Amino acid sequence: MDFKSSETITGPRAEDHLPHTAQAAVKIVIVGGFGVGKTTMVGAVSEIKPLTTEETMTQAGIGIDDNYGSETKTATTVAMDFGRISITERLVLYLFGTPGQERFWFLWNGLFEGALGAVVLIDTRRLEVSFDVIGRLEERGVPFVVAMNTFPDAPSYPIEDLRAA
Known about the structure:
The protein has about 160 residues and is of the alpha/beta class. The protein has 4 helices and 7 strands, in the order E-H-E-E-E-E-H-E-H-E-H.
């Protein structure tokens, strides 16, 4: 049997190191319902390879998790996603994506510590989940913006209606 030497230590790639000019960092939390695209968003905008905690979905979630619109989803975030965006040479955004299932919402307490605010990613097929998420943020006094992910089979609403909601 072959073993990897315990003396081998790997670290971040050179391109993942924080620029030496960075003087300020801001934490933003990405929230939303199950399967809305939080992991995809963090991966799409991060300048580094995102850290994800996706695990294969199991039978344990049947009857507990609402997977409407995500029936073909096979993996789910169980702790958080992490990415980074350098806005300028001096300002860096740290992105933390939350799990979407309500049973993991207890993890939000730690993820929101020190956060400037949140991005609420919504799915118009399941707006009621978005209201629950927004309600939690309002209860905590967390500033947020809303972003809509567009799915091919999702209903379309005028932007004015979404803003009013």
